[in-house]
Amino acid sequence: MLDIKKINEAINYIANEKKIPKQELVEVIESAIRTAYKKDFLNKDANLSVKLDLAKKSIEIIVEKEVVEKVKNPNVQVSFEELWEDAGDYKTGDIVEIDETDNILAKTGDSFGRIASQAARQVIIQKISEAEKNKIYNIFKDKVGENVSMKVEMVENGKVTFEYNGNIIGLGKNEQVSRDNYTAWQRYVLYVSKASSDEENWPKVILTRKSPELVRKLFEAYVPELLDWTIEIDFIARMPWIKTKIVVSSNYEEIDPAWTMIWQKWIRVKSVMDEICGERIDVIANIWDDATLIKNSLSPAEVISVEIDEEGKRAFVVTKVWEKSKAVWKNGVNIKLASEITGYEIDIEEVES
Q1: Which fold, 4-131?
Q2: Closest-CA residue to 298 (of 241, 342, 248, 350)
Q3: SS3 sequence, 225-278?
Q4: pTM to 2 decimals?
Q5: CB atoms within 10 A of CB 353
Q6: Angstrom distance (rounded) from CA 277 to CA 240
Q7: How many CB atoms lie within 10 A of CB 145?
């Protein structure tokens, strides 16, 4: 038998805890009961309605049946004899609504209650999950393209969850940076890269620690000249936890954009580096000359000469033998980032002197 009292208690708890309207939960349970009943006692094409009245602690199950001379399937058919005094109001083939509540519960007893409860539990779990995803989506939909500071809630088997204003959200493994040592209660800045919702899919929010835009937004927080357009970030390339290269320009001749980003004693760059666990950052002033930009982007290497093929987007760079390793750096990180921010494929030739 369905325990309406326990269902009512569960609905009240979930409604208060998860902020889901009670009527939505009632409809979810009614739908689950219909599904369970049709699956186990009728056929999938049967029409029935379920009315759950929590105030009266009752349930009503109404089944639509076809009026026939001889019943072959009692679950979807009813005879004239069964209609008693109402038989004269119908003809063969008519559809009549029959209250089957007592028959169903008497026939199936605890079995039906158990099946319906299990179905309701599954649907409610799904509803809660959907409500949680909607809630997270609504929180972050207006924060796309921004950084958000969050506290680590839990780290378990590579899964990292964060707490934000009392809400829990996960950081996907593909969006984590291996150098980050995620520990409970520690704060990190994450970039909100996506928040989407459509009719076919559940709402989705993607946070990341890998995006170069995370670094851009961090600099905007520490460098006010970026917000008032005194200087601008023209290009940015990043290899998470290893190195980031940033090209900046000034809208005023008297202002050095690279120095403005770095500031005295490298305080601004160091502040950003602290937020990304010590990741190296190269800041390069843009003077809008491709050859010079390529040369400077290969820092800390000293470059002898640069020849460029503008049409083929290739650059031919000459360095001294002992400078090539600096230009390339670990696993080619430096040259890859230089190529990304300049838009040129870079070839390096080394000479003895």
Answers
A1: N Utilization Substance Protein A; Chain:P; domain 4 (3.30.1480)
A2: 342
A3: HHHCCCEEEEEEEEECCCEEEEEEEECCCCCCHHHHHHCHHHHHHHHHHHHCCC
A4: 0.74
A5: 5
A6: 10
A7: 13
Which CATH class for the 212-351 domain? Answer: alpha beta
- Residue 67: both structure tokens together: 């009026």
Is residue 276 within 8 A of residue 236, CB to CB? The reply is no
Can you list the pairs that 275-278 forms with residues at least 24 positions away whose Cβ atoms lie under 8 Å? Answer: 275/189, 275/218, 276/177, 276/209, 276/214, 276/215, 276/218, 276/241, 276/244, 277/177, 277/179, 277/180, 277/181, 277/241, 278/179
Locate 87 and state its tokens: 């038989």
Over its C-alpha atoms, the chain yields an Rg (Å, rounded) of 33
Judge contact between 34 and 73, C-beta under 8 A. no
- Please tell me if the domain spanning 141-208 has the same topology as the one spanning 212-351: no
Domain extents for the chain?
4-131, 141-208, 212-351
**Sign of the Cα pseudo-torsion (268, 270, 274, 277, in order):** positive
Q: Give the separation between CA 120 and CA 122, rounded to whole angstroms.
A: 5
Report the pLDDT value the prediction gives residue 172, as an integer from 0 to 100.
93
- Assign domain 141-208 to a CATH class: mainly beta
Question: Which of 11-25, 32-46, 263-277, 316-330 bottoms out in mean pLDDT, i.e. has the lowest?
Answer: 32-46
Q: For residue 236, how far is the Cα from the chain centroid?
A: 24
Q: Are strands 48-53 and 58-68 parallel, antiparallel or unpaired?
A: antiparallel
Chain segment 160-203, per-residue pLDDT in tens: 999 999 889 999 999 999 889 999 999 999 999 999 987 667 78
Closest C-alpha to 163, from 144, 150, 146, 149: 150
Look up residue 353 and give its DSSP letter.
-
Residues paired with residue 280 on neighbouring β-strands, in sequence order: 243
| Tens digit of each residue's pLDDT (9 = 90 or more) over 204-253 | 999 999 999 999 999 999 999 999 999 999 999 999 999 999 999 999 99
Handedness of CA 281, 176, 201, 124 (dihedral sign): negative
> Do 29 and 123 touch, CB atoms closer than 8 A?
yes
